[in-house]
Structure formats: C-alpha cells, structure tokens
Write a structure and sequence with these properties.
Blueprint lengths: L9 H8 L13 H4 L8 H5 L10 H8 L6 H14 L8 H5 L8 H4 L4 E3 L4 E3 L1 H12 L10 H12 L15 H12 L9 H7 L4 E2 L2 E2 L10 E3 L4 E3 L1 H11 L10 H12 L11 E2 L1
Helix pairs in contact: 5-9, 8-9, 10-13
Bound molecules: heme C (2 copies).
The site of one heme C has 18 residues, from α6, α8 and α9.
Length: 280
C-alpha cells in the first residue's frame, strides 16, 4: 500500500531513505554501508532512546500536548466508556473488578507491558491481557487483534500510565523473547532486503520529505495516526513498515510480533509514556 506516511512508495522511498536520490544530507549513505548496520552499535544504543515526539513538526507536537486538540483522546474516552459500562455474559464490567475508570489498576505495572505470564509461559502484550479479561472474565467473543474495540480498551488502559517511564523486563524469562525480537528487528527480509534497524537505528534523524525518520520508538502507542484518522495499534504499524520495504506482513498478534513488541518497547525503556501520541 502506498501512503504519505512514508513519503513515497516502494523503491522510490528506499532511494531516498538510502540517499541514492540525493535527498539525504551529504555524504549520502551507500547501501553497502547500510548493509552492515545490524553489526554496528545502534543509534538508540549510542545516543539513548529518543521519543518519536522529538522528530515531529511543531504543530503535531502541539496537537498531541493539548487534550482538547488530540483526537486520540476521543478514543481514550470511548475506551473508558466501554470499561465502565459494557457487560458481558458474566454480567461484569471491567470497572467491577478494576475500579471506576480503572482506579485500581497500577500505572507502574501498565508501564511494564509486555510482561511474562507464568500461566501461558510466554509474554503477553497489554492488548492480550485486556482481551483475556474481555473473554474469560466477561464472557465476550475475543476481539480480533488491533481492531477498534480492542484498541479503544488498550488505549484507555495505556493512557492511565501516561507520564510513567517505560519499564519492560529484559532479563529472566523475558530474555529469550527480547533476543528473538532483536533478531527479527535486525534481520534483512523482503524484496528490498531491509531490516527495521536500517531505518530506525542507522538512519534515524534523516529527513524524508517534510518528515524525519525517527528511532521507531513506541512510547506513544497506541497512537493517533493522522493518515488513518484513527488510533492504530503497534502491530498494525509493524505491518506498515514491512509493506514499506516489500516484506511479508505477519498476522497481527502472533508470537513473532509479540517478541518484536518486547524488543521494540524495551529498547525505549526509560522513555516517558505519551499515549495517545499523535503521529503521521
Ligand atoms: C471478574 C473480574 C475481572 C474483570 C471483569 C476484568 N478483569 Fe482485568 N484482571 C482481573 C484479574 C484477576 C487480573 C490479574 C491477572 C490475571 O490473572 O489475568 C486482571 C488483570 C488485568 C490487567 C493487567 C493488570 C496487571 O496488574 O498486570 C489489565 C490491564 C486488565 N485486567 C484490564 C481489564 C479490562 C480492560 C477489562 C474489561 C474488558 C477487565 N480487565 C475485566 C480481573 C478482571
Ligand atoms: C525503509 C525505512 C523503514 C524501515 C525498514 C522500517 N520502518 Fe518503521 N517507520 C519508517 C517511517 C518513514 C516511519 C514514520 C516516521 C518515523 O517515525 O520514523 C516509521 C515509523 C515507525 C514506528 C512509529 C514510531 C512513532 O514514533 O510513532 C514504529 C514503531 C516503527 N516504524 C517500527 C518499525 C519496525 C518494527 C520495523 C521492522 C519491521 C520498521 N519500522 C522498519 C520507516 C521504516
């Protein structure tokens, strides 16, 4: 799919991401150099994580900062409404167990997601957890990953942790998933033989038309996406990036995407949660 988020489509995008089109500041980055990106220290590791917010134009920052202007807040409100009022087969609202407006949920805990689930023996994303309560504790049919209802609930819960620091566990049982996510992040795939790290580590900070390539941090997710006119989930954004470099998308919510989420979120440990961020 072609869209303005990524400035151009397919190989044309890469031409200027990689500098061949002369749109990057000199010296142009040669594809050959970029090929070694995964081996070199990542930009996020050398300069520390930087929120996508810092790469936005001023007007977009202002839109995010003001709750009345930030269109993502309507999704938070819709999620809150669902949280307080919707009852499943079991006759329970989310609020019945977690307090009105989620008052009994711990923002510091929310900031740790994805977390390791002893019961499942693998990490769960915040959306997995919300969906588990939705089905098991309330008796609803599962909400397909990243669909509107799931996103509304997730963005509401994640917004409770706005202002907290991202704090994902990377040792203990989470270690293998973190490593797996990093491998996915650094593995070149697709017709254009690209990896996430090529754009978001090695080339972060470079201009793509009016926009700047960010580190691809996720401390604002789920985020209001101007080009969608909706709040979008993280896995949906992963798919968009894969499409951008013509690699196969993965099913939303699958284990590889969960591992990728573990790595990508932990890579931003210490960043302040901004949900709902406003992004292109
Ligand atoms: C019948 C009680 C009940 C209902 C209803 C319920 N939950 Fe839960 N929820 C729990 C319990 C118990 C846990 C602890 C983790 C577990 O065992 O799943 C939990 C965990 C969570 C967590 C993770 C908190 C943490 O500390 O890690 C979130 C977020 C959450 N629920 C959101 C929701 C949302 C959103 C809804 C409504 C769709 C909901 N819950 C409905 C009982 C409930
Ligand atoms: C060809 C370059 C390119 C590649 C490769 C790429 N992306 Fe992106 N990505 C972008 C652009 C352009 C944007 C939008 C502007 C920005 O935030 O950088 C973006 C945005 C994002 C964002 C949103 C950041 C925010 O602050 O809202 C995330 C998360 C992300 N990418 C993750 C990934 C992951 C994971 C991969 C690997 C599957 C990947 N990207 C591969 C170009 C790329």
């Amino acid at each position: 799919m072609c869209n303005h988020y990524f400035a151009r489509c397919g190989s044309v995008t890469l031409m200027f991401v990689l500098g061949a089109g002369g749109l990057l500041p000199a010296p142009a980055v040669e594809p050959v150099t970029v090929a070694k990106a995964a081996d070199t220290a990542s930009q996020a590791e050398t300069t520390g994580p930087v929120s996508g917010y810092a790469f936005l134009q001023k007007e977009t920052q202002q839109m995010q900062d003001d709750d009345f202007l930030n269109p993502g807040m309507q999704w938070v409100e819709a999620g809150k409404e669902m949280f307080n009022t919707l009852q499943g087969e079991n006759g329970k609202t989310c609020a019945a167990c977690h307090g009105e407006d989620g008052s009994k949920l711990d923002p510091k805990r929310i900031a740790q997601y994805p977390v390791y689930s002893e019961t499942l023996g693998k990490p769960v994303t915040l959306q997995n957890q919300v969906n588990a309560c939705w089905t098991k504790r309330m008796g609803y049919h599962p909400l397909p990953y990243d669909t509107e209802g799931a996103i509304k609930l997730e963005v509401f819960v994640q917004n409770l942790a706005r202002g907290e620091k991202v704090n994902v566990q990377t040792d203990g049982p989470m270690r293998p998933y973190y490593e797996k996510g990093r491998t996915i992040y650094q593995t070149r795939v697709g017709q254009l033989d690209m990896a996430c790290s090529v754009c978001h580590d090695s080339n972060a900070g470079k201009k793509i038309r009016g926009n700047t390539l960010s580190q691809g941090q996720v401390n604002g997710y789920p985020a209001y996406r101007l080009q969608h006119g909706a709040v979008a989930g993280l896995h949906t954004t992963f798919n968009e990036c894969y499409r951008l470099f013509r690699a196969s998308e993965m099913p939303l919510g699958n284990d590889d995407y969960t591992a990728l989420e573990v790595y990508v979120t932990a890579r931003g440990n210490g960043l302040t949660i901004e949900t709902p961020a406003v992004r292109f």
